[in-house]
Automatic annotation (TrEMBL):
GO terms for molecular function: G protein-coupled receptor activity; olfactory receptor activity. It is found in: Cell membrane. Residues 41-290 form the G-protein coupled receptors family 1 profile domain. Coiled coil: none annotated. Odorant receptor. This is Olfactory receptor. Belongs to the G-protein coupled receptor 1 family. Keywords: Cell membrane, G-protein coupled receptor, Membrane, Olfaction, Receptor, Sensory transduction, Transducer, Transmembrane, Transmembrane helix. GO terms for cellular component: plasma membrane. It comes from Peromyscus maniculatus bairdii. CDD domains: 7tmA_OR14-like. The chain crosses the membrane at residues 25-48, 98-120, 141-159, 193-216, 237-260, 272-292. It is a multi-pass membrane protein. It holds the Pfam family 7tm_4.
């Protein structure tokens, strides 16, 4: 296998899905299609929420940053995997591995936080509509998004620092298509990975707190929805909120299963499947579930596709991007 001799150096081998070249080409093709779809969907959302003056409310401001996170997250892991498969070269340098761990853990943590903020925004909009403009004023939204990005960066720094402080004394073979922390821990043959477990436990508590906050927000939302006299109105809100809650729960549960389950020396297909569920699918599906099903987003997209100019009053959120 190409790059095997390099495992004794500072780099790693990413074994990924198969060592058969035909299956590697299939994997690369599927990942390329998924990557292009995810990038296109997120780029469209970023573009129209920036250009359309009618999409400058807090909800679309948060959607824009969710798409930025998703676009970045896809770019951290998928292109490297595609390149390795096409080139039949599984090698990744030590520095590239560090960057992958840092950016992936930072962006994944930030995504959990931004989805929590978005659920609170929906709670205020539906349950406290008369106070919405006061509670979700532009300055508070800007500070919330700043806190999301900073918190993600801190999480990524903690993960990266503790992960690469351990001694990798086994064969540097990662049974994954990217440098994933649980797989890196398997390369340690001592107890010096306890720092990583401590960071994982702390961030798991934070993620659980976010899950509780999201659950409470949607619990209040559903309670309010049930009091809506119009069946059509209830159906519309349910069709919007339920997919949000499902995707958030799915992303959190699959990530928790991968990062919190005990490490073992024998890789399984379940590890690879779980990794796709929390790395590739959410950034690809979020544009459809959170945004492109929205009528206002569809109208703005039609304007883009038809080449029509965006008109209307510019709002302060245009300057908060």
């Amino acid at each position: 296998m190409t790059g095997t001799n390099k495992t004794t150096g500072s780099g790693f081998l990413l074994l990924g899905f198969s060592d058969k070249h035909e299956l590697q080409i299939l994997h690369a093709s599927l990942f390329l299609v998924t990557y292009l779809l995810g990038m296109a969907g997120n780029f469209i959302i970023i573009t129209i929420t920036t250009l359309d003056p009618q999409l400058q409310s807090p909800m679309y401001y948060f959607l824009k940053h969710l798409s930025l996170l998703d676009l970045s997250s896809l770019s951290v892991t998928v292109p490297q995997s595609i390149d390795n498969s096409l080139m039949d070269n599984d090698y990744i340098s030590y520095g590239q591995c560090i960057l992958q761990v840092f950016f992936f853990t930072s962006l994944a943590s930030a995504e959990v936080f931004i989805l929590t903020v978005m659920s609170y925004d929906r709670y205020v909009a539906i349950c406290l509509p008369l106070h919405y403009e006061v509670i979700m004023d532009p300055r508070k939204c800007m500070w919330a998004v700043t806190a999301v990005w900073l918190s993600g960066g801190i999480s990524g720094t903690l993960y990266t620092t503790t992960t690469f402080s351990i001694r990798f004394c086994r064969d540097k073979i990662i049974h994954q298509f990217f440098c994933d922390v649980p797989q890196l821990l398997k390369l340690s043959c001592s107890n010096d990975y306890l720092g990583v477990l401590g960071v994982s436990s702390f961030l798991a508590v934070m993620a659980f707190a976010c899950f509780i906050a999201v659950t409470l927000s949607y619990g209040q939302i559903f309670s309010t929805i049930l009091r809506i006299p119009s069946a059509e109105g209830r159906s519309k809100v349910f069709s919007t909120c339920l997919p949000h809650l499902f995707v958030f729960s799915f992303f959190l549960i699959t990530g928790a299963c991968a990062y919190l389950k005990p490490t073992s020396d024998s890789p399984t297909a379940l590890d690879l499947l779980l990794s796709i569920f929390y790395t590739v699918l959410p950034p690809t599906l979020n544009p459809v579930i959170y945004s492109l099903r929205n009528e206002a987003m569809k109208t703005a997209l039609r304007k883009v596709l038809s080449g029509r100019q965006f008109t209307g009053k510019n709002f302060i959120f245009c300057s908060l991007f």
